[in-house]
């Protein structure tokens, strides 16, 4: 695992937490923030996955 994979996974987790808190408190703004964080985390993880694939080739 490289740093992009780790940071991407961490960002996704933070996003899930923010989304859950937003739902629980009926705070749409926080829920959307969580969705955006999850998308950004997934993008970073995908970048890390691609780097690992290139590195193994």
Automatic annotation (TrEMBL):
Here the segments flagged for biased composition (Basic and acidic residues) are: 1-17, 24-34, 46-57
Q: Where is this region: Disordered?
A: 1-57
Q: What is stated as this protein's family in its record?
A: Belongs to the UPF0337 (CsbD) family.
Please identify the protein, giving its name as recorded.
Answer: Uncharacterized protein YjbJ (UPF0337 family)
Matches recorded under InterPro entries: CsbD, YjbJ_sf
Any idea where the CsbD-like domain is?
4-56
Pfam families linked: CsbD
């Amino acid at each position: 695992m490289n740093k992009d994979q780790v940071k991407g996974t961490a960002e996704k987790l933070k996003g899930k937490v923010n989304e859950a808190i937003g739902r629980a408190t009926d705070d749409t703004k926080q829920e959307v923030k969580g969705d955006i964080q999850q998308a950004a985390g997934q993008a970073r993880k995908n970048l890390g996955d691609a780097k690992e694939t290139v590195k193994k080739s």
